[in-house]
Write a structure and sequence with these properties.
The complex is a heterodimer of chains A (about 120) and B (about 110).
Chain A (H helix, E strand, L loop, with lengths): L2 E3 L4 E5 L4 E3 L2 E3 L5 E8 L6 E7 L6 E3 L2 E6 L4 E6 L8 E9 L7 E2 L3 E6 L1
Parallel strand pairs in A: 2-12
Antiparallel strand pairs in A: 1-4, 3-9, 5-6, 5-10, 7-8, 8-9, 10-11, 10-12
Chain B lengths: L3 E4 L2 E4 L5 E7 L5 E8 L3 E10 L2 E4 L7 E2 L9 E3 L8 E8 L8 E2 L3 E5 L1
Parallel strand pairs in B: 2-11
Antiparallel strand pairs in B: 1-3, 3-8, 4-5, 4-9, 5-6, 7-8, 9-10, 9-11
Classes of the chains: A mainly beta (about 120), B mainly beta (about 110).
């Protein structure tokens, strides 16, 4: 069965600290896609990254980086030198090629960055 | 600007009064879907559409209807809203299912009293 687990419900850090948000997924498909979304206090869902199951290359975008490891079924997200504007709920999600296109979301991690 | 537009952003209504939440995308996306977000239950898919005139149920379709008469529009219809449909609703679109990023609308916060 497909599932996404974000074990960290809430994380609080002080500005400029690095923080890693964990994401573990379960799927029987060999072709699947992983996503991270940010939901700021205003409520919208902002797309951050998509990774397909055949591409285990890590990715860096500014202060954001993602570590995809198929061996451990994990797709972790690191924010370097966190800022107050990073405060939000972050969702990891899975979509399986054999499925209907449905996004299976984790429960989300609330990140609070204090000044 | 490429976007998914949902309206209204906020809505308070009474039980049983039919309502429609509109969703429109300007990216020529084939795939569209609706999600609801509830505390403790997370984000769940209500309905999806692979293409024009092709729609199907997601995980929580009860009490909802959709239609896809044009590629750009995918309205969500609540024929007889009930308080348990109070939720935050999101419309999403993608070039095709699964393999591309999904763009979400800004959300509709619905309260049924």
């Amino acid at each position: 069965a497909q599932k996404v687990t974000q074990a960290q419900t809430e994380i609080s850090v002080v500005e400029k600290e690095d923080v890693t948000l964990d994401c573990v997924y379960e799927t029987r498909d060999t072709t699947y896609y992983l996503f991270w979304y940010k939901q700021p206090p205003s409520g919208e869902l902002v797309f951050l990254i998509r990774r397909n199951s055949f591409d285990e290359q890590n990715e860096i975008s500014g202060r954001y980086s993602w570590n995809f490891q198929k061996s451990t079924s994990s797709f972790n997200f690191t924010i370097t030198a966190s800022q107050v504007v990073d405060s939000a709920v972050y969702f990891c999600a899975l979509s399986e090629w054999s499925n209907t296109g449905k996004l299976i979301f984790g429960q989300g991690t609330t990140l609070q960055v204090k000044p | 600007e490429a976007q998914v537009t949902q309206n209204p952003r906020y809505l308070i209504t009474v039980t049983g009064k039919k309502l429609t939440v509109t969703c429109s995308q300007n990216m020529n996306h084939e795939y569209m879907s609706w999600y609801r977000q509830d505390p403790g239950l997370g984000l769940r898919q209500i309905y999806y559409s692979m293409n024009v005139e092709v729609t199907d149920k997601g995980d929580v379709p009860e009490g909802y209807k959709v239609s896809r008469k044009e590629k750009r529009n995918f309205p969500l219809i609540l024929e007889s809203p009930s308080p348990n449909q109070t939720s935050l609703y999101f419309c999403a679109s993608s070039l095709s299912r699964s393999s591309y990023g999904y763009t979400f609308g800004s959300g509709t916060r619905l309260t049924v009293v």
